[in-house]
Amino acid sequence: MALSILDFYQTEPKPREYVLPGLLPGRLGSIVSPGGLGKSMMAIQLCHLVAGVDLLEFGDHPTGRAVYLSAEDSQDILHERFFAIGSRMNQSQRELGAQNIILEDLTIHTPDLLKTEWLSTIEKFCIDSRV
Q1: Residue-wise over 19-56: b if at least 16 C-beta within 10 A, else e?
Q2: How many CA atoms, within 13 angstroms, populate the side-chain half-sphere of residue 112?
Q3: For the chain, counts of helices (H) and of strands (E)
Q4: Sequential pLDDT tens for the chain (131 residues)
Q5: Based on C-alpha coordinates, what's the Rg of the chain?
Q6: What are phi and psi of 43, to 5 degrees?
Q7: Is residue 44 within 8 Å of residue 68, measured between CB atoms?
Q8: Kind and range of the H or E element at 117?
Q9: Are 18 and 26 in contact (CB under 8 A)?
């Protein structure tokens, strides 16, 4: 079905809501760089930002549930990273992060994104999440 150009001319579009600048909800984003430069820590910090803990001083933005599925870092490494971030937070920020961030260690499995079961599992984790 063709889009109605006349409707586009005559109706004001809805304002866009971004998860982060340039990233629309429901879209796929990626963080790409060589190893060891801080991609995982940045992604974890972004999860905190979306969860309502603004340690990066981004300012006002919509908040909500964040999901971090780690297929690279084990539970021990995740513990170290979250401990480092948590040391900069007060108790109410820690509770907010714990409430709004879902954290899973996928290194104990061998996720195969080509299998429907894995895609379905990941989709279930991400329902009602902002990032």
Answers
A1: beeeeeeeeeeeeeeeeeeeebeebbbbbbbbbbbbee
A2: 4
A3: 5, 2
A4: 898 999 999 999 999 888 877 788 777 777 888 888 989 998 999 999 999 999 888 888 888 999 998 888 899 999 999 999 999 999 999 999 999 999 999 888 887 878 888 888 888 888 888 88
A5: 18
A6: -65, -40
A7: yes
A8: helix 116-126
A9: no
Query: One-letter amino acid identity for 105?
Result: D
**Amino acid letter, residue 95:** E
What pTM, to 2 d.p., does this model score? 0.81
Rounded to whole angstroms, the Cα distance separating 5 from 1 reads: 12
Is there a contact between 89 and 101 (Cβ–Cβ < 8 Å)? no
Using the structure block, give the residue that is written with the tokens 């499995």: 109
- The residues pairing with 123 across neighbouring beta strands, listed in sequence order, are none
Q: Residue 80, exposed/middle/buried by CB under 10 A (0-12, 13-18, 19+)?
A: exposed
